[in-house]
Amino acid sequence: MAYIAVLGHGVVGSGVLEVLMTHKGSIARRADVEIKVKHILDLREFPGLPYSHLFTKDFDVILNDPEVTVVVEVMGGLDPAFQYVKACLEHGKSVVTSNKELVAEKGAELLAIAKENNLNFLFEASVGGGVPIIRPISQCLAANEVGEIAGILNGTTNFILTKMIREHMSFADALQLAQQLGYAERDPSADVEGADACRKICILASLAYGTHVYPREVHTEGITKITLEDVAYAEAWGGVIKLIGQVKMLESGKIHIGVCPMFVSRDSQLAGVDDVFNGILVRGDATGDVVFYGKGAGKLPTASAVVADVIDCVKHFAKRKYLYWEDAKPDYVEPFDVMPTDVFVHIQGKNSDSAFDTAETLFPGAVRLIRKGEKEGEAGFVVSQISGRELGEKLPRLEAIGVKVLGSIRISDY
């Protein structure tokens, strides 16, 4: 018998209990031992459940129980999750978590404690929910040098963009629908502003390149400024708009990393990732492009990944799995705005032709796009291989000579 404890009984926590109970027999076969939940930590009352007697409000009950060998943290946030997870590792208990904020901010420290105590700190569910990505990078693709990772890492933003693309729904209406359907929180700022995707790409970068990349070091843009006009220009260009988290290893040894909306070609494997689904592309030197696809969130998909980690911990309790990265190296992240990329620019002037002609004086070689329903005075164009820094210098100059800049969006090469 292997005893575990669960910290938190929210959406994911209750899903973990459901999966453990409904798949009890098959889980025991895969783990080579029966897994039994001994304690559930939550400050709320849950009467009437078949496991109501397992609840406790005292974390020390779990910490000081020598029978509990694995603790599942599904509380979310940093406080008190970090203190609890750290204490568990220091008291000889392996930890499984779905907490992306915890892993993104404290991963290096917690992995070091786990290593020191010959324990496991596993977090498959923290990035792709039910989409396996941590194991594939750390194990299946271990023979590769991972040059790049790019992905659609947030289901809420992908749902909103899908509605804007397919049904021409405004951002505000699509966000409201996402909230009504339970795909977004009442305050979904972490989703639509890109913070959620930023944490996930930082975890993947840390894992792939062996050094901790903190979210605060990463350029992050959300989708709140994306308009239906932008969507139409993307279609005219030959693609769709997706919120992309990306990281690339540079020849200098530094990494280029960021999260932003991008034009994605319809030929890309990421272009067809719609609704609440996630898609993660890993570019290995031996394998080429490998794409992982599935639901990135949700009660049971996330719980499935958590329970898989629990099984791994139980099977490898006396043998630590190699999952590790060092603390952050100084100046490891290349400034995002120095890397050149193709960019779409949306402008407005007295009339469309003159607006584009004026823009072309500052952006020689710009390629104009014509969208369906283009309004008089409006124009869109693509500039090849320009850095964010140079673009940031030229756009104010364009406004100074009478052309209003409505927005700009990077263009993906994935």
UniProtKB/TrEMBL annotation:
NADPH binds at K100. Pfam families: Homoserine_dh, NAD_binding_3. PROSITE patterns: HOMOSER_DHGENASE. NADP(+) binds at L7, G8, H9, G10, V11, V12, G13, S14. The keyword Amino-acid biosynthesis applies. Pathway: Amino-acid biosynthesis; L-threonine biosynthesis; L-threonine from L-aspartate: step 3/5; Amino-acid biosynthesis; L-methionine biosynthesis via de novo pathway; L-homoserine from L-aspartate: step 3/3. Residues 132-311 form the Homoserine dehydrogenase catalytic domain. Its EC number is 1.1.1.3. Keywords: Amino-acid biosynthesis, Methionine biosynthesis, NADP, Oxidoreductase, Sodium, Threonine biosynthesis. Residues 8-124 form the Aspartate/homoserine dehydrogenase NAD-binding domain. GO terms for molecular function: homoserine dehydrogenase activity; NADP binding. L-homoserine binds at E185. Belongs to the homoserine dehydrogenase family. This is Homoserine dehydrogenase.
